[in-house]
Amino acid sequence: MALTTLDSKAALIVVDLQKGICSYPTARPATDVAKHASALIQAFRTHHLPIVLVNVTGRAPGRTEQARASSSFSADFADFLPELNQQPHDHVVTKKAWGAFTHTDLDAHLKSLGITQVVILGIATSVGVESTARQAYEHGYNVTLAIDAMTDMTEETHQYTITKIFPKLGETGTTQEIIDLLDATHA
To answer: CA 152, CA 123: separation in Å to the nearest integer?
Structure first.
């Protein structure tokens, strides 16, 4: 569904735009994702709306058929990209699962602020972003996905998630469409 509205009580959730994740090869340049993320962060700050920065520092312990990479990460793996311009009032969620709501304080934090809608962006479209969007939807939030502010490891998985999964979870829009709607909503 195309973007129609933004609630007055919206929060921005930035998923895994951290040095370690952004060093992986992606279908679309992580620098482009960071540029769009920065624009959305600035727009949310201008309107005094909450920013949630999510990073990942581990993995869920279950077995999978896919071989696991080494569990040791570089010292700066979880550091947020400088383009995000992290501020002291940004809420930080550190996760060890795909979705940002699993075993974290994210839902309680958003509810304490009266948030009814979340705008989600980040890397990877089909993993951290999709999982967080599914969980937000299941928690009853209105979900908006900034489709030009995300990427995946392959274009195929990125496009599948955007065209087949996201329309079931919420509304999609570009960074500029979201900023324009945000400006109109908070004028």
So the answer is: 6
| DSSP 8-state class, residue 27 | S
Could you read off the pLDDT of 35-77 as tens digits, one per residue?
A: 999 999 999 999 999 999 999 986 656 555 666 565 567 788 8
Answer whether residue 1 shows pLDDT above 60.
no
Point out which residues pair with 53 in neighbouring strands. Answer: 14, 92
| CA 138/CA 154 separation, integer angstroms | 27
Question: Could you tell me the pTM of the whole model?
Answer: 0.93
CB atoms within 10 A of CB 81: 20
DSSP SS3 for 59: coil
* CA-wise closest residue to 148 among 160, 132, 127, 162: 162
CATH for the stretch 10-57+79-185:
3.40.50.850
Cα separation, 74 vs 76, whole angstroms: 5
